[in-house]
Amino acid sequence: MTDAFPRIAPVGLSGIAISFADTLSEPANRAALAFRAAIDSAGWDGVEESSTSLTSAFLRFDPLHLTHDDLTKRLTSLITAQDWYAAPLPTGRRHFRIPCVFGTDLAPQFSEAAQAAGLTEAEALHSLTAARPRVLTIGFAPGQPYTGQLGPEWDIPRLKTLTPSVPQGALVVAIRQLIIFSNATPTGWRHIGQTAFRCFRPEAPDPFALRPGDELSFTAITPEELHNIRNAQTTNGGARIEAIA
Amino acid sequence: MTRSLTIHRAGPSLTVQDAGRPGYLGQGLSRSGAADPIALAEGAALLGQSAELAALEMAGVGGEFTADQDTRIALTGAPMMATLDGAPLRWNASHLMPRGARLVIGAAGQGVYGYLHLGGGLATPPLLGSRSVHLAAGVGRACVTGDDLPIGPDRGKTTGLTLDPEPRLTGGALRIVPSMQTELFPPAERARFEAAEFTRDTRANRMGVRMLQPGAPFAAQGQLNILSEIIVPGDIQMTGEGTPFVLLNECQTTGGYPRIGTVIAPDLPRVAQAGPGTKLRFQFVTQETALDALRRYRAMLAGLKSRTRPLVRAPHDIPDLLSYQLVDGAISAHHEGD
């Protein structure tokens, strides 16, 4: 199958996706981000917006202005212009240190997630606070980051039975990825941490806190500290942000 | 001075909607906007104003309203029982709502989403270029009893127009084109999908509509291993239980369920407006057919203004018919002008 990539596929009448792999890998994610940036700077007339998922770039266009065939030709030519899998990460990346309560009744699935990963709770806590996952894509809900990849021990499946509602700011884990939820949602991902971080702030000048390429790390705090952070409201969930050189 | 619309009683899901907020897919925010964009354009045509203006979308049931100044209104989409100070109002028409007059909008007889348009449009504060509420994303909120909604300045004068709405309330065949995972459904499965008659489930909202059918569930090959991919409105997502879900303007932006196809934009209002129990089918069409449909759809929207005509009142719409002097035509001015 690998030789079938990159692959161009229609997404309805006015969308087209360029997929770089059918399983998540770091090079395929970088390829998708770089390819989207190239589409944006090409500025083709008739292209209305672009986006990425974990390993694909997507663009929406006006099919009465730019035909599928014409667009496919341009994309094919752009694909061959360089080795996208070797593309660098986006510029302007940032590192967010986010305070997080692991476990307790604020994040009740921490123990079972550690167990599923074959780790003690102490090992799991050490692993998660030492990790520096990268934002691979923003999607599903506004500003919501899919980050990774964690070590292979965290390749744990999603739960078959959904948890009816996990709150905004929840840190959840599955398939070597971590997500911070933008809004309360039902989910099959395990709720292992709770932050006061808001991925989407409709009232802010820039409502979307994170961008693909940004890196996250988590500082373990107590429920009392989380309470104080929420009351203070001086920063976004107590996050400290620095530019990645 | 700003005019405002006061909501004295709000139905369960009243939201301010315009054409939506495209351009934020990369940030995980779907476009939102009116579930029935044709209704938005029809309202604009009836009031002779821009289709960019925001209206009040009413899911299933309307509410009770007054305006603090004389205000032009239009009613489009799913027809609902409507009265102004007790006198029945025609749907798919524009009217003058005098200051303080009580507009009562009841339940939809057919279809799902009715629209109340105001001359000048609703002027709630825009966010990221649109006034559309996005319930799932937490952008804005549904209206509640007691809300006052600002109305924009209105330069128009005309009321008393009507138009024949584009038919879209009774389901039927939906034209679909391939999506990213169409090939994962074997040809026999796709043929069975096209042959099936679906009923719109009660589980439906601005995010999407679930479709039921009596046959076996539909399955893709390798269904559980699909990486999350971009979703667009119209996508027909096959959930784990093999039941299709047609996604609308407020859908999530990515998803891991396979999609068998995508309903083309011109047919999506028929999905949104299908009431519970409405029958629907899916039919793959060629790209050429789909593009032709899109071309005709845009021309239809652009030509709505020319389809408006003066509202001729039917005798049964006139509340106190016996008080009119029908023989000599000397109808008092008091009764004119609606």
TrEMBL record, chain A:
Carboxyltransferase domain boundaries: 6-210
Keywords from the UniProt entry: ATP-binding, Hydrolase, Nucleotide-binding
Pfam families to which the protein is assigned, alphabetical: CT_C_D (PF02682)
Signal sequence residues: none
TM helices/strands, residue ranges: none
InterPro entries xrefs: CT_C_D, Cyclophilin-like_dom_sf, PxpB
GO molecular function: ATP binding; hydrolase activity
UniProt-recorded name of the protein: Sensor histidine kinase inhibitor, KipI family
Naturally occurring in which organism (per UniProt): Thalassovita taeanensis
Phylogenetic classification of the source organism: Bacteria, Pseudomonadati, Pseudomonadota, Alphaproteobacteria, Rhodobacterales
UniProtKB/TrEMBL annotation, chain B:
Protein name: Biotin-dependent carboxylase uncharacterized domain-containing protein
Domain Carboxyltransferase: 26-300
Keywords (A to Z) from UniProt: ATP-binding, Hydrolase, Nucleotide-binding
Pfam families in the cross-refs: CT_A_B
GO molecular function, one term: hydrolase activity
SMART domains: AHS2
InterPro entries: CT_A_B (IPR003778), Cyclophilin-like_dom_sf (IPR029000), PxpC (IPR052708)
Record's signal peptide: none
PANTHER family, A to Z: 5-OXOPROLINASE SUBUNIT C
SUPFAM superfamilies, alphabetized: Cyclophilin-like
UniProt superkingdom: Bacteria
Keyword set includes Membrane: no
